[in-house]
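Quick one: structure tokens for this chain, please?
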Amino acid sequence: MSVTRYSPWDVVNQIQQDLNRVFESRRGEGTTADTSNVVTAQWAPSVDIKEDAERFVLLVDVPGVKPQDIEVTMEQGVLTIRGERHVERTEGDGSTFKRVERVHGTFYRRFSLPDSANAEGIEAQGEHGVLRITIPKHQRVQPRRISVNVNTGSQAG
């Protein structure tokens, strides 16, 4: 017998997502609407995003996910994180779980990045169940002040 955790808010959240998808598709009629949110996922990891003067940092909670099961891509200003957490149904000694609360399956997150993000320098590393994605910013070109020199010599006139 397997016990599954029930959350009544899952139904409400699914209805909200379906309604959002309907309104977004109507808003995009006649245009090339972004349909990438149609990708199904069983769960979405929590993400914190920090920004400082030199970079953006995303901290993604992915405990129990192996690095080889995570894919990070950057295309046309959109950072995509997808992967899968595999479920452990039985242990080696023949016992089975009596309660399963940890979410498993595929996940998928997308983030639009500003023009200041430097796609060439993105780095990702995992440690203690947290994926850290560092996105450097482009060096800003500072305005250059040009001084006007006073001509002290005589001019022919």
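The helical segments are 9-27.
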